[in-house]
Amino acid sequence: MTQPQPANTFKRELLSILPSLRAFAISLVGRHHDADDLVQDTIMKAWAKQEQFEMGTNMKAWLFTILRNELYSKLRKRGREVQDSEGILTENLAQHPAQYGALDMQDFQRALALLPDEQREAIVLVGASGFSYEEAAEISGCALGTIKSRVNRARQKLQEILQLSDEGEYGPDAVSAPLTSRAFIS
């Protein structure tokens, strides 16, 4: 049994992880309101089980694992998953972009939605959430080599879907790149 931790320390660390947790949930379910419900359920479970968490260990991985398990439990209960392989639901949520970056992001989101669930989960954990391969493998409940393979296949499939052969083909164009890089210089 672990030592009881001060509620403020646990709460502070939990709150700092919420944006990453929400982003992961959105990437898995695709709908903001469903993602928010999933994050809320995850936080409620984590709060109820906080005595089982050992401070000093990886809370982010612990929370991501709870979220992932909660999602799969909900999917099993429903017995079916809503597929959006053609991006119809995503298009209804998206606004028409005002600039090229928004268009690129829409293209990327559509491409990400076309990936198999395991590949999408792996690339989001490693590429977007900043987890190491080892942490992503632990969260996903698979071998290290499996997670590396899923990430590699996801990257290749994204390049294929987006028809990219060079990294300069995606993101700001030559005209807007200098403008966007100056915006972050203080």
CATH superfamily of the largest domain: RNA polymerase sigma factor, region 2, helix turn helix motif
Oligomeric state: single chain
> Helix and strand succession?
HHHHHHHHH
Portion of residues within helices: 55-70%
Number of alpha- plus pi-helical segments: 9
Could you characterize what this model shows?
The chain folds into two domains: 1-78, Orthogonal Bundle (Rna Polymerase Sigma Factor, Chain: A); 95-170, Arc Repressor Mutant, subunit A (Orthogonal Bundle), CATH 1.10.10.10. It is built from nine helices and no strands. It has helices at residues 7-29, 32-48, 59-78, 88-93, 100-114, 117-128, 133-140, 144-162, 177-183. The chain is globular and about 50 Å long. Keywords: DNA-binding, Sigma factor, Transcription, Transcription regulation.
Quick recap:
It comes from Mycoplana dimorpha. The protein has helices at 7-29, 32-48, 59-78, 88-93, 100-114, 117-128, 133-140, 144-162, 177-183. With 186 residues, it is mainly α.
